[in-house]
């Protein structure tokens, strides 16, 4: 899907929830299964059009596919920036918005 997006346009915007966020990690630790929430109401096997990952996973995928990350905005569930989330995004940010392009 990323490759198709960049085939059609010079740049693309991608946003997704962070499964490295501490609440997801805590849920996995204490419940032993993938979390569900108001923003992710589907079970892991029945999630339409979403591949669950962490920010780090996505950035590795982009590198492997020859995709350059132009910029990234990390936010909480209200889509507001938090200073600590900028310091530890994979642990403290709930969502990210990436602007990407072909290298």
Please tell me about this protein's structure:
This protein is of the alpha+beta class. The protein has one domain (2-39, 49-102). 35% of the residues lie in helices and 23% in strands. Strands 1-3-2 form a three-stranded antiparallel sheet, with helices on one face. The two termini are 17 Å apart. The mean pLDDT is 88.
Number of strands: 3
Average predicted confidence as pLDDT: 88
Q: Tell me the structural class.
A: alpha+beta
Q: Provide the succession of SSEs.
A: HEHHEHHE
List the strand order in the largest sheet: 1-3-2
Key attributes of the depicted protein:
3-stranded antiparallel β-sheet, alpha+beta, 35% helix, 3 strands, single chain, 103 residues
Secondary structure: elements and pairs:
Elements (H helix, E strand, L loop, with lengths): L1 H7 L2 E7 L4 H10 L23 H10 L2 E9 L7 H5 L1 H4 L2 E8 L1
Antiparallel strand pairs: 1-3, 2-3
Brief summary:
This protein has 103 residues and is α+β, with helices and mostly antiparallel strands.
